[in-house]
Amino acid sequence: MTDFIVLLSLIPVLIAGDWLRSQLFDVDGHNKLAQWPLALALGSALVAYILFLTSLIVLPQAIRLTLLLVLLLAISHLFHSRTHFLRLKGWDSHWNRESQIALAMAVPFILVIVSTVVVAATTDLGFDGLVTWAFKSKVAYEAGGWPGSYFVEPLHRVSHQEYPLLIPSLEAWAYAFLGRVDERAVKVIFLIFYLGLLAMFYEGIRPHVSLPLRMLYTGMLSALPYLASLAAVSGYVDVPLMLFLLGATLFMRRWLVTGKQADLLLSAVLAALTVWVKREGVVYWGFNALFVVAYTLWWQRSRWPTSKKWSVLACFFAPALIILLPWYAFLAYYRVPNSDFSPVTLATVRTNVDRAPIIIRQLLAQYFSLGRWGLLWIIFTLVLVWRRLDLNQPPVLYLCLSVVVPVILFASTFLFSVWEPFALHMDLSLERLYLHVALLAWFFVVTQTSDFDTWFSTITSTLPHTAAPNLKKDTHDR
Amino acid sequence: MAFFALLLWAQLIFSLGLTLWRHSLVFFSDWTSYPSGVPATYDEFITLALQHCPADAPTIYLSPPGDVYTARYARIHYFLYPRQIVWLGLGPITSPVARWQPFDLSADQLQQAVNHYEAGCLLVEDVPTPGPLVSGQSIQFDSARYILIPAS
Fold first, then answer.
1. Other C-beta atoms within 10 Å of A398: how many?
2. Has the ipTM of the complex gone over 0.85?
3. What is the DSSP letter of B140?
4. Of the partner residues B7, B22, B75, the one whose CB lies closest to the CB of residue A229
5. Structure pTM?
6. Do B26 and A122 lie within an 8 Å CB cutoff?
7. Where are the beta strands (DSSP E) in chain B?
8. Interface with B, mutate which of A159, A180, A229, A352 (most B CBs under 10 A)
9. Tens digit of each residue's pLDDT (9 = 90 or more) over A90-100
């Protein structure tokens, strides 16, 4: 029952998120499958942002005020857009050979998803999931918002006071519906993000591959060993971060292909929001920022007028200012210490340069870790070499760099780790950093091998198929 | 393309097999993701602490310093909130985790620390007869752990 209540509590979040999407972004061509993960991301961010701002003003009533505002938004949007929701295209249900093969491919992966859900329901949040993220949400729920005292109390340092608040805000939101803290019930939130991630990935590869391969590739993502057996069943925020990161990458790539400013804006918002999910998000936002600047000022230097260049840069950086400035100002005001890293200085680099061989060894160990990734990184490398000539196309180059650059940047951060020994820090966190980009690596593999579809169709055309049952036809686009 | 298909097939079988095997371990071997290293019975000690430690006074967690106690302290910190939990470690600083450290004390400073924090409760673990400790009510949990309610 409590799980069901938590699930219900996410409905207004989804609707409010869809409202935000409709107000700010003119993004077309999405069906239900793509729209709800986007709504989840934007709705969660909306809840977290409102709770954060209201906590600064009316602390004990902040959660109630957030509930009121978000529910009003959701009800209003639901009323005004009811015909829009009814008109949305549904699942592909055109019964043909493709559908039959896709259905066959779906069976083992439905098994993976079901077993993931069952395992998540029977295990706890994991260490960080409880003592870091769930502790924050407990504080927020019991204080009615985010109390400034939490961020300065030394005795709470174990909960990483400097960590961002998006997921803990959503957990506190769920607690508000439940009327109590329930660290078991909030697992539902993480499962919804896992399913949303798969839905967004499925939709993201839609233009590149046919239905059976969409099912295959999405299913293979769902069963990625580290994702399915560790990340998705815990209360760590890596899976939610992956949803935001995938969204930011998909829309950035779309902008590079279509040039539509709405795609860039949505990418910018999602990239900035990764920083609200996990601190590592600053690396992803930073990479995207660098790429946009380089693409605008160098690649398009002779094609675009100055006004367009300024427009593009403003489109990317303005959301970051709005979304991130209040949070960083807050951290600076309360002098919330960074508990894991020393300041980034040349002196620190010189002092810790002897860590480099250890870092490289750990990176390689992750790369070849079959138990975590299977053959993913080997497949990625082979495809990268095979399609290296495509790297002169900005969308392909962007996707490749979105995998490689964060890995290098993350590895570099361990030069500044204050842990003794720092290798312990790497042991505990490097695999999760690889997880975020593993998703993008898989997306790269799929998009760069779209001609595999033709070969696959040729092979499967020789398979026997059943006659189409009398099903209602639906629109089917690729 | 055939080679790519072979790689996909291998990845498919391997991922599926490994994932489903690990999931089955949850049901048959108490496997868990991101384990904290805290024994399953520890929550019973925490439950006892919740029953006896006053909610309006700080609680001191007294243990040797070290990683194994870090995880236990963090779990106590979560479940006993909103109580303030102070981790006092006896002995030299050995905790490799730099983000927080126990306060190291010699045994004869312990009484001063208890008085300083106005502790309403001490959770004592793996500390053999902690020196000139405060007198009070002692609630034994097991051979390694007990709860001490200081005399007011």
1. 21
2. yes
3. E
4. B22
5. 0.91
6. yes
7. 59-63, 85-90, 103-105, 121-125, 136-140, 145-150
8. A229
9. 554 556 777 77
